[in-house]
Amino acid sequence: MSQPIPSAPSPRQPGPPPSHRRVGRRKFIVGAGAAAGVAVAGGAVLVQQASAATFGWSDDGSNYVIDTGASLVFKVSKSTGDLTSLVYRGKEYEGYGGKHSHVESGLGASTVTIKQSGSTILVKVVHGAITQYYAAHSGQNNVYLWTNKADASFTATRYIVRLKPGVFPNEGSDSWIEASDTIIEAGDVWSRSDGTTHSKHYSGKRVMDYDYIGFTTGSAGLWIVRSNHEKASGGPFYRSLLRHSNDGGAGLYEILHYNQSQTEAERFGLQGPYVLAFTDGGAPSSSLYAKNLDTSWVDGLGIGGWVGKSGRGKVAGVGISGQDTNYPYTVGFASSDAQYWAAASSSTGSFSCPDMLPGTYTLTVYKGELAVHTQSVTVTAGSTAALHTITVSNDSSKAVAIWRIGDWDGTPGEFKNAKLMTYAHPSDQRASSWKGNVVIGSNETASFPCYIWKDVNDGILVYFKLTAAQAAAAHTLRIGVTTAYINGRPRITVNDWVSAIPSAPSQPSTRSLTTGSYRGNNHTFTYSVPASAWKTDTSQYNVLKINIVSGSTGSAYLSPGTSFDCLDLLG
User: Fold this and answer.
1) What is the chain's percent helix, strand, coil content, to nearest 5?
2) Residue 287 in 3-state DSSP?
3) Average pLDDT score over residue span 2-16
């Protein structure tokens, strides 16, 4: 796991002389590896002196200064627990706008302690229901972090690493230029003169798709290697803030619980480690990835809520029967206490999910992002729950259809503008027109918009013909959606027949369609269309009209809207 120690590490950053160091009534623990410590009764003063080796810590009066013994020296505030300095190879990277790096927008006054145990230095920050940890491991250019949130008494949705302006290139869909770009939505979506749109929301990745996120100059890289997100929410397909940059600075995020487009309740407990890793420009070592990380050195540190490998279990399945080879399959596990996921083999459907906290989970098999099977599974520490072949029994694609637009995979991915919408605003000049009608048999899937809004492209028409036998019978029309904004939902008209207004399913209450996410609660609307609705002349087109209805109001791309998965007319 250890990275090689550079031959010319940065010099240690000394604090003020011991006689000038001010330390309040706080407990400081000196572990093995420290050279000396002095405790003064009444004043509770303890000074950690530099050891003969480079690796160690000191006290500059306001901060604990940790030298990793490699090329990284960082500081943690003794009063707030903020990460206040990141010096890599002699260059400062941390902070912008007078703010430092911390949970949410900063914990404020906290109890901060430090201890050294052999080759590890651990800083503990306590503020009410939040306990934040920072660790340095000798010889590595990494900071290991954990966040333990006991309850909802303190808002904590993220850990943000704030970086100085200008140290990394300001480019990408999640970057903007405040001096020249124009705000077009909610203070966090920007438009550039070339018509492209930019936002901190537009990183364009699902949590299962990345192991790290960060910046590089080519000669220096700074990354957050995410945790396993067992205490986060939203499942494997969730999208949220990952990073941002602008002319005022840059930020990297580890999401603890994010409410935007969220479909699950908040989970509590210890999340981590997530790793802040410096490199010489390249990607962080794969040994730091959550699935690969050796955490045996953490077991004896006394981190509250920590469960080592011996206290965890595993689920393994021999296969999935009924897979559609056109799609990847993911097996998710969720309880009120934790979440996990594992990719299924494309050939056999076999899967393995190790290092799970003990408990009973709902196991869900996803075709793409659509749930096609659920069952319960119990995980026991130190053992493997072995599952027989799972048979997929709820794949909507298996129904015989007269016509189908898209396919049932839980995403709008086949539809017009779908790919762009994970990293751009719907008003982006790169988007094709949101309007335009569809003719079955004429490239209908690529022509159908991924989203429909009441105030933008309401009333999309779909033209189709039926045979005499088909027109003589009633049929079921299905419309699958992936999320909705302010209860937008489809009401249909077939020729002169008008459906009832369907009930609104449960969906996230925040913005989604304009902030890079189509992911909510997959829902299928079904409409029983009578035989009397169809054209009796088989040479004529039947016309399906889709209108968005809602009891709420909004304008333009913030009017009621919905994201589509699939539409079909069953035979």
Assistant:
1) 5, 40, 55
2) helix
3) 33
Task: Tell me which residue has tokens 């699902």.
Answer: 206
Residue 88's identity, in one-letter code, is: Y
CA-closest candidate to residue 480, choices 537, 534, 399: 399
Residue-by-residue DSSP string for 244-259: EEETTEEEEEEES---
The pLDDT tens digits for 117-175 are 999 999 999 999 999 999 999 999 999 999 999 999 988 899 999 999 999 999 999 99
Instruction: Specify the residue for token string 């302010």.
Output: 486
Give, in order, the Cα–Cα distances in Å from 481 to each of 144, 369, 431: 40, 12, 21
Phi/psi of residue 422, nearest 5 degrees: -85, -10
CB-based contact 545:382 (threshold 8 Å): no
Give which of 213, 211, 292, 222 is closest to 1, Cα–Cα. 292
DSSP strand pairing (189-191 vs 475-485)? unpaired
- Determine the Cα–Cα distance for residues 371 and 389; give it in Å rounded to an integer: 17
Q: Is the pLDDT of residue 41 over 90?
A: no
For residue 481, the cross-strand partners are 523, 564
Distance CA 442, CA 475 (A): 22
Other beta carbons within 10 angstroms of residue 152's beta carbon come to 12
- Closest among 221, 202, 219, 203 to 276, alpha carbons compared: 221
Give the closest residue to 542 by CA, choosing from 436, 464, 444: 464
Distance CA 130, CA 259 (A): 18
Lowest mean pLDDT among 11-20, 33-42, 189-198, 214-223: 33-42
Supply φ then ψ for residue 444, to 5 degrees: -65, -35
Coil vs helix vs strand at 197:
strand
Sequence-ordered strand ranges (E) for 344-407: 351-356, 359-367, 370-379, 384-387, 390-391, 401-406
Which contiguous run of DSSP H or E holds residue 123?
strand 120-127
pLDDT tens digits, 273-310 = 999 999 999 999 999 999 999 999 999 999 999 999 99
Please report the sign of the dihedral spanned by the C-alpha atoms of residue 226, residue 227, residue 233, residue 235: positive
* Kind of pairing between the strands at 320-321 and 390-391: parallel
Q: In the Cβ-directed half-sphere of 58, how many Cα atoms lie within 13 Å? A: 19
Report the pLDDT averaged over residues 250-271. 97
Residue 147 and residue 224: Cα distance in Å, rounded?
Answer: 14
| Residue of 288, 86, 101, 241 lying closest to 167 (CA atoms) | 86
The rounded distance, in Å, linking the Cα atoms of 251 and 99 is 11
Element (H, E) at 523: strand 523-529
- Kind plus residue range of the DSSP H or E element containing 342: strand 339-343
The whole model's pTM is what? 0.90
Q: Which pLDDT does position 331 carry in this prediction? A: 99
Contact criterion met (CB below 8 Å) for 139 and 70? yes
How far is Cα 558 from Cα 427, in angstroms, rounded to an integer? 11
Q: CA–CA separation, 548 vs 278, rounded Å? A: 49
How far is Cα 246 from Cα 215, in angstroms, rounded to an integer?
13
Token pair 């719907």 is at which residue?
A: 426
In eight-state DSSP terms, residue 99 is B
* pLDDT of res. 156: 86
